[in-house]
Amino acid sequence: MLEAVNVLVPDGLLIPDLVIADAAATAGAGATLHADDVVVAVEIASPSTRVIDRRTKPGLYAAAGIPHYWRLDLDPAPRLHLGRLAPDGSGYLDRTVQPGESTALTEPFPFDLDPAALRR
């Protein structure tokens, strides 16, 4: 897992808040990873990035073939939007996890978190 690393996508360069990537690729990556090495791109939406994180970045990550795009919205309460790339690569199939619910993921790795645990 890396924080604020550069990710090369076909349309340029993106800097997700967190990246979960192939361990071998991260060992020699330095400050830049290729999209092919990224398993999950995570954005933490803030007032200044909310529109870009919701509307622009999912399409760019999908076009790059990144299998998972997750977005954490903190206001008005923590919610996780878990996107998995559609089989045709056209975009992400999203599931929103509300406070009091569990992510209960098995792919791309076991992950079980209630967004309520992320309260400020």
From TrEMBL:
Residues 91-120 are annotated as: Disordered. Residues 10-113 form the Putative restriction endonuclease domain. Pfam families: Uma2. SUPFAM superfamilies: Restriction endonuclease-like. InterPro entries: Nuclease_put_TT1808, Restrct_endonuc-II-like, Uma2. Gene3D superfamilies: tt1808, chain A. PANTHER family: SLL1072 PROTEIN (PTHR35400:SF3), SLR1083 PROTEIN (PTHR35400). This is Putative restriction endonuclease domain-containing protein. It comes from Kitasatospora saccharophila.
